[in-house]
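Exercise 7.
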Amino acid sequence: MPAELTKIYFVRHAQPDFAWKDDRTRPLTAEGREDTRIVLDFLRDKEIDVFYSSPYKRSYDTIADTAVFYGKEIITDERLRERESGIHGNQHGMFEKRWADHDYCEENGESIHTVQKRNMEALTEILEKNSGKKVVIATHGTALSTILNFYHPDFGCKDFRRIIDWMPYIIELDFSGDELLYEKEHCYIEKEYSRSSASLKG
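Solution. The predicted structure, written as C-alpha cells, is:
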C-alpha cells in the first residue's frame, strides 16, 4: 500500500528586530508582527493538524496566532534552530564561502552541512510521526535552505539569496513517506534582510 500524502508547510519567520543581539530571544518588529497575518490568512483553510517550530522566538511567534486559531499547541524542536553564527555573523562575503564549501564554518559557528544534518533528522522524524497529516514547521532562512538543498543538490548561494529578503515566506512540500513529490511557493513579504543584517554578528 502506498504511503499517505503528507503536506508540510514551511514558514520562514517574519521580520525580526536586528538590533536585538541574542539570536534565540530576538523578537519580531512591529511590522513583522503585523506581517504574521499573511501566515494566518493563508493557512486558515488548510486544515492543519500539527504545528512545529524552531525554539527561537521569531519563528515561534510567526505561527503563534495561526496555532491559536486552530486550537493547537506548538511543538518546539531544538534541531530546527537556525545556524549558529560565528565571529563573522551574517556578513555577506561569508554567504558564498559557506555555500561553496558546506563543511566550512568560522570560529564558534556552524557549517551548512551541520545545520542540514540536524534539520533533516528533525524533518524525517516529523514525517514518520505525521504520515497523511498537514503540518506547519516554523523555520529560518538558512535552515530551510539546507532542507531544500538536500532535495535539490544544485540549490546554492544564489537560491539562498533569492529568498533571504522574504519574511515571512511559505513554501509547501508534499511527501509520500520520505519521498518528496511536489513543492510550491505560496506567499512572501519582502523585508530587505540583507541590508538590515549586513553588520549583524551573533
